[in-house]
Amino acid sequence: MPATVDDIIDRLGGPEPAARLTGVTTEAVRKWRHAGAVPSRHWAVVSAATGLPMDELRGEIQSGSGDVPPGATAALVLADGAVFWGRGFGAHTDQPAPVGEICFNTGMTGYQETLTDPSYAGQIITFTFPHIGNVGTNQEDIEAASVAARGLVVKQDLTQPSNWRSTQHLDVWLRARSIAGVSGVDTRALTKRIRDGGPPTGVLAFPSDGRFDLAALCALAEGWPGLEGMDLAKEVTCLQSYDWDESSWAWPKGFGRQTAPVRHVVAVDYGAKRNILRCLAAAGCRVTVVPATASTDDILRHRPDGVFLSNGPGDPAATAAYAVPAIQGVLAKGVPMFGICLGHQLLALALGAKTFKLDRGHRGANQPVKDLTTGKVEITSQNHGFAVDLDTLPDTVNPTHVSLFDGSNEGLACSDRPAFSVQYHPEASPGPSDSHYLFQRFVEMIDRRPR
Question: Could you confirm whether 427 is annotated as catalytic?
Answer without folding.
Answer: yes
